[in-house]
């Protein structure tokens, strides 16, 4: 009982559990408001009893009211953050249950057929095992994304920057995705000026960012079209762009594109997969690497996503 009571008054511990600072924590703000209300009553009483000027008492009340109003605004914002966190949790459960259920169902179905000995010449045991491996990789990627989100939220995202060629990395990823793109009747092209300077960043994680942006471009190019990736040297940074001729993003959705667990209604409409954390992770990686990330889009005309990375080591 005593331990529970002491835990409740340990505001720093309570706020850390919410993953918010003291000035964003409802319990702390309510405590501050309570203290100010008590002080306001005392100050108003002292001013009213010692001084005859009503203007001074009124001014004191106005100042304290303004302070309380500002704190009330902070309380509202704190509750909004908690509400958004709750919504994100619900979205996370919904999205991840779908993301994990689909490959698990596929694996179960493939194993069931193998156990029943229903392989054929058209679809051999090797094909079944390859499908199982693909679905297993899909689940591993989903879990890795969750771990990455958790690291970002805990400010524990550790990057291992080094010099590498972003052009060579992009060429390698395009080669790996060409077969996947052909299934969507999409054509990938790379435009880069000669020899570009190397960038200084975490090659593995930048590879994930590049893969995610390319994967998105392919997924939303359902009717086919050109996907163009370009690289250019710009002001001591390498600017990387990818443009598609897909469905684009509506103005109402654009402000939420980099939010955690956000998936646009068009993603469901066109039955594209994804957990809604790829762009959230990409933004965190690029910004922590000393670069910038952004996009432009028009409905029914396509989208262009871009990011920049420093050429030299950042301090």
Written account of the structure:
- This is histidine kinase.
- By secondary structure, the protein is α+β, with helices and mostly antiparallel strands.
- It folds into three domains: 2-83; 91-153, Orthogonal Bundle (Helix Hairpins); 162-310, 2-Layer Sandwich (Heat Shock Protein 90).
- The protein is 59% helix and 15% strand.
- It has helices at residues 2-9, 11-18, 26-50, 54-115, 125-153, 166-182, 203-219, 251-254, 265-269, 278-288; strands at 162-164, 186-192, 199-201, 225-234, 237-243, 292-298, 302-310.
- Strand 4 (225-234) and strand 5 (237-243) form a beta hairpin.
- Helix 5 packs across helix 10 (278-288).
- Mean pLDDT is 79; it is low at 1-8.
Strand-helix topology:
Blueprint (H helix, E strand, L loop, with lengths): L1 H8 L1 H8 L7 H25 L3 H62 L9 H29 L8 E3 L1 H17 L3 E7 L6 E3 L1 H17 L5 E10 L2 E7 L7 H4 L10 H5 L8 H11 L3 E7 L3 E9 L5
Parallel strand pairs: 2-4
Antiparallel strand pairs: 1-3, 4-5, 5-7, 6-7
Catalytic activity: ATP + protein L-histidine = ADP + protein N-phospho-L-histidine
EC number: 2.7.13.3
Pfam family, one: HisKA
Instruction: Please state the CA-atom Rg, rounded to the nearest Å.
Output: 27 Å
CATH superfamily of the largest domain: Histidine kinase-like ATPase, C-terminal domain
Spans of 5+ residues with little confidence (pLDDT < 50)? 1-8
> How far apart lie the N and C ends?
50 Å
Q: How large is the count of helical segments?
A: 10
CATH architecture call of the largest domain: 2-Layer Sandwich
Based on secondary structure, the structural category is alpha+beta
**Major β-sheet profile:** 5 strands, mixed
Strand order of the largest sheet: 2-4-5-7-6
Q: How do the SSEs run, as a string of H and E?
A: HHHHHEHEEHEEHHHEE
Mean pLDDT, all residues: 79
Shape: elongated
Strand-residue fraction?
A: 5-15%
CATH class of the largest domain equals Alpha Beta
CATH topology of the largest domain: Heat Shock Protein 90
Count of discrete structural domains: 3
For the secondary structure, the number of strands is 7
Helical content class: 55-70%
Transmembrane segments: 28-51, 57-79
Organism: Candidatus Giovannonibacteria bacterium GW2011_GWA1_44_25
Domain Histidine kinase: 95-313
EC number: 2.7.13.3
